[in-house]
Amino acid sequence: MRRRRRSAAGGALAARILHLGGDATGAGLIDALTAAVRRDPAIRILEDAFVARVLLDDVGGPPRAVGVEVLQDAAPRPIAASAVVLATGGAGQLYEHTTNPAIATGDGVALAWRAGAVVSDLEFFQFHPTALDVPGNPLISEAVRGEGARLVDAHGHRFMPDYHPDGDLAPRDVVSRSIARHLAQDPVAAPGVRPEDAAASRRARCVYLDATALGADFLARRFPSLTALTARHGYDWSAAVVPVVPAAHYWMGGVRTDVDGRTSVQGLFAVGEVARTGVHGANRLASNSLLEAVVFATRCAAAISAGGGTAPVFDAEVLDLDAEEAGTQPVTRRELQAVMADHAGLLRTGSGLDVAAKQLASYRAGTDPETANLLLCARLLVHAAADRPGSCGAHYRSDQPDSALHRPAPSRSYIRIPEGAQP
Ligand SMILES: Cc1cc2nc3c(=O)[nH]c(=O)nc-3n(C[C@H](O)[C@H](O)[C@H](O)COP(=O)(O)OP(=O)(O)OC[C@H]3O[C@@H](n4cnc5c(N)ncnc54)[C@H](O)[C@@H]3O)c2cc1C
Questions:
Q1: 329, CA 20 to 30 Å: which among 145, 318, 363, 375?
Q2: What is the CATH classification number for the domain harbouring 137?
Q3: Which atom of ligand 1 is nearest to the CA of 288?
């Protein structure tokens, strides 16, 4: 096997990350996986099919997943299955700046929650510090800073060493929070400026990534996709700085599973970003998603082939969101994202989380199922964040920065109140 170059990333002590095609690792993985799936005649592919519900059978015992309801061409239809595996990815669309694709609307967490599965650690959402500040927020990989690029502010000041001894290669959460703090120091609240306008103005600002010292040849060779990406948006990053913002990137929390992907509902499994296996704790190290996607997915497939096994029992607090689901104010995805960015993003406070909870409780999602899923996930995340005082990993309370409250950090799990039960 050809020896491949490994690179480091923020928070990592060793260079351990493999790459394909320079900076096209994800595309390489997806291409290989797609080809393997298409080759397998036992796999039936349904394009543009939206899973709207997990079907349950509770005759003679606890509920068991027996299939899904799928919307295809807007018509719902059931698909029976002896095992249902949620592999729906993350929920970056909870926030207005996200590296995630448009499909990352928390569907798996919402589906599992409604099916009665335990969810855990929802307050832990990782923000990537360097998304390009253009629509869609494409990611500028940490590897660029690993190779020597630096963050600077609008005055050209290299600010990261002011916040952490590891400077630009501090862990992701530290760099993202430092950017938010640094930007917050610039006053936008002037007399006569409405608080919501000040918040919008604060959200609209950015810092810059300076990769000019790396040189055009190196950048083109080492980061061909990023060189093309920045050029597509009108930037020559070998000659000038590019604007970057922290963007929602990875949800450490999710549907709680055991090490074989089993959720607390019999027959329902979860793998990939939607799952909360616990391996990332409160903060994921860069490039560790493969652990979820490859290791746990393989274990899950083996477990299902061997009969599925018995659903694990997890301790969980029963949570009644019914009152919150009685909101009447129609909400757009953009409004939801603004509430989350202002009060449940990088820097949180108890009072801000209260504001967010009240605002979210007043909303009604309308007919778009993805916005309904986002609203449910937002309510769950805000509840979990308000439930955890102090700061821990990606959950940072600027009014309670003390992390000593959580050593070791207890995991928090929730389950919905069973249908028909009294609160
Ligand atoms: C820009 C970017 C760069 C990243 N770089 C790295 C990296 O270098 N290393 C690393 O380890 N991780 C990285 N990550 C994280 C990693 O890519 C993700 O965690 C991982 O791809 C998630 O895989 P998944 O299979 O769980 O979900 P996804 O790959 O998001 O797939 C989910 C699938 O489920 C489908 N789906 C969702 N909801 C429904 C529904 N209701 N009905 C039907 N289908 C549905 C979606 O359409 C999609 O096809 C990166 C993430 C991003 C956004």
A1: 318
A2: 3.90.700.10
A3: 11
**Rounded average pLDDT over 72-88:** 92
Of residues 189 and 27, the one with the higher pLDDT is 27
Are residue 281 and residue 403 in the same domain, yes or no?
yes
Alpha-carbon distances of 353 from 6, 188, 243, 350, 370, rounded to whole Å = 40, 22, 29, 5, 23
| Domain limit, last residue, from 232, 247, 262 | 247
- End-of-domain residue from the set 221, 247, 273: 247
Torsional class of 188: left (φ above 0), alpha (ψ -120 to 50), beta (otherwise): alpha
Q: Do you know the residue count of the chain?
A: 423
Whether 223 is in a domain gets the answer yes
373 within ligand 1 shell (Cβ under 6 A): no
Ligand 1 centre to CA of 280 (Å) is: 16
Residue 268 CA neighbour count, 13 Å, CB half: 33
Q: Is position 2 within any domain?
A: no
Residue with tokens 């009152």: 323
Please indicate whether residue 368 or residue 94 has the higher confidence score (pLDDT).
94
Instruction: Please report, for the domain that includes residue 84, its CATH number.
Output: 3.50.50.60
Q: What is the pLDDT of residues 31-73, one digit of tens each?
A: 999 999 999 999 999 999 999 999 999 777 889 999 999 998 8
Pairing label, strands 125-132, 268-270: unpaired
Instruction: Look up residue 253 and give its two tokens.
Output: 């929390």
Give dist(CA 235, CA 301) in Å, integer.
Answer: 44
Paired tokens of 56: 């349950």
- Exposure string of 258-269, with b = 16+ CB inside 10 Å and e = fewer, is bebbbbbbbbbb
Task: Give the relative orientation of helices 333-343 and 195-203 as an angle to the nearest 10 degrees.
Answer: 90
Give the whole-angstrom CA distance, residue 67 versus residue 267. 9
Same domain flag for 233 and 159 = yes
Residue 49's CB: how many other CB atoms inside 10 A? 14
Question: What is the mean predicted confidence (pLDDT) over 316-337?
Answer: 86
Structure tokens at 196: 């919501």
Residue 41: inside a domain = no
Cβ atoms of 172 and 10 closer than 8 Å: yes
Same-domain pairing of 87 and 173:
no
Taking the centre of ligand 1 as the mean of its atom positions, its distance from the CA of residue 238, in whole angstroms, is 30
Please determine, for the modelled complex, whether the ipTM score is greater than 0.95.
yes
* Residue 172 annotated among the catalytic residues of the structure: yes
With respect to residue 94, please indicate whether it lies within any of the assigned structural domains: yes
* Catalytic residue selected from 172, 262, 284, 416: 172
Residue recorded with tokens 């993202």: 176
Cα 19 vs. chain centroid, distance in angstroms? 22
| Domain total in the chain | 2
